[in-house]
Each structure stands twice: as structure tokens, then as C-alpha cells.
Specification:
It contains 3 helices and 4 strands; from the N terminus they run βαββαβα. It is α+β, with helices and mostly antiparallel strands and 97 residues long. Strands 2-3-1-4 form a 4-stranded antiparallel sheet, covered by helices on one side. Helix 1 packs antiparallel against helix 2. It starts with a strand and ends with a helix.
Length: 97
């Protein structure tokens, strides 16, 4: 499964990069395949381990912010691994044609 999620602290002002870094740090320390871009962090693994990482990432932000917003999108496809890379590779292959 791949989960793309965004954790946003509310009530802390406009500069939220420090708070978001706390969440991304949790993801990177998890050891699961992941990728962060300007809008979302994607993480790949089994349901329980991915959801645990999301929960802990939210908790890291929640520890310092009075309110937290979570946006989550999941691709639940049993038996597929390395989706973070293979999905992008497929698109790139089609673009190169």
C-alpha cells in the first residue's frame, strides 16, 4: 500500500516548515520507502506499519501545535511492492516515447 499524506499544524502562523519537518523525520526514521515533495509525503508498506507511521507523524506535530489537519490518500493494492518507484518509471517510459 502507498499512502500520500499531508500534516499541517494550525494556529502556529504561516511558517510551518519546522513542524512539517518533525512529521517527515518520523517517516524517514521508520525505514519504510518514502518520498516527500512540496505537497505530500508518500510512504509504502503494509497497512499496519504505514498507518502507525502516519499516526506517529501526526503526533509529532500535535505535540507542538494546538490543532492539526491531516489529508490522506491511499492506494491499497495487495501484492504490489516498490510502487513508489515503479509507478513513476511507467509514466516516464510513456513520456519518453
Amino acid at each position: 500500500m502507498i499512502v500520500a499524506f499531508s500534516v499541517t499544524p494550525l494556529g502556529v502562523g504561516e511558517d510551518v516548515g519546522e513542524y512539517v519537518a518533525d512529521a517527515v523525520r518520523v517517516v524517514r526514521e521508520s525505514g519504510l520507502p518514502n518520498r516527500t515533495d512540496a505537497m505530500f509525503t508518500s510512504v509504502e508498506g503494509e497497512w499496519d506499519e504505514v498507518m502507525d507511521v502516519v499516526r506517529r507523524a501526526v503526533a509529532a506535530v500535535e505535540a507542538r501545535a494546538p490543532r492539526v489537519s491531516l489529508v490522506l490518500k491511499a492506494d491499497i493494492r495487495p501484492g504490489v511492492t516498490d510502487g513508489l518507484t515503479s509507478k513513476v518509471d511507467t509514466v516516464e517510459r510513456h513520456l519518453a516515447e
